[in-house]
Amino acid sequence: MNNNSDHKYVIETHDLDIYYGTFKAVTDVNLQVERNAITAIIGPSGCGKSTLLRAFNRMNELYANSSIRGDVCFNGQDIYAREVDPVEVRYRVGMVFQKPNPFPKSIYENIAWTARIHGYKGKMDEIVESSLHQAALWDEVKDKLHQSGLSLSGGQQQRLCIARAISIQPEVILMDEPASALDPIATLKIEELMQELKKNYTIVIVTHNMQQAARASDYTAMMMLSRDGERSGTVIEFDETTRIFTNPKDKRTEDYVTGRFG
Length: 262
Fold this sequence. Notes:
33% helix; six-stranded mixed β-sheet; four-stranded antiparallel β-sheet; Rossmann fold; 10 helices; alpha/beta
């Protein structure tokens, strides 16, 4: 994969359809993800938000009978081209899941093991400390690095997973409802962390929390089931977050963000 970080958009989709077998889960998505910004994907349950997110680093391929039509480009290159290694895609486009999933290893090894299997040959103590600093977790765990990652609170576990994701220095971090299992204080810490991380990374987040999307993101994509009679999701509106929440163009977006349905 190329390193063309001069390309205007870090991720672009063109006429993207996503299938599970013969079922079309997502239809006709054209999206441009700005570099060093936070893009939120919102919409009612079952409209394909997580499926679209996973298409950005080929994670859907881990599910049986998944396929796409159209293009997903990273720095201008089609990540589904035959010559592109999906492992490299996931190295460059990291993922943080809804439920914190630290490895059953020490806090230190959660990061060191990840860096090691991706070929990191530098000073491991430095990458562990740097990753935990970036995830705003260092001060809380620096004296217990050899305790299990599973001993941490839910919010700390999620920040450990973020530290693990950034230990291999991806360009993009995908987050699939990263705060949905957390309490309000831990959620706020994740949102504050995202603001710091976007200085060095591009973030795409799926969230069902309208307040979180409004607070934390720079751009918002609104998804709904399409009007073609299929249970297929599509992006009906994409704009700066302030416009989506204060002056949306589509009545369905207005109804959703104001809580009239969803």
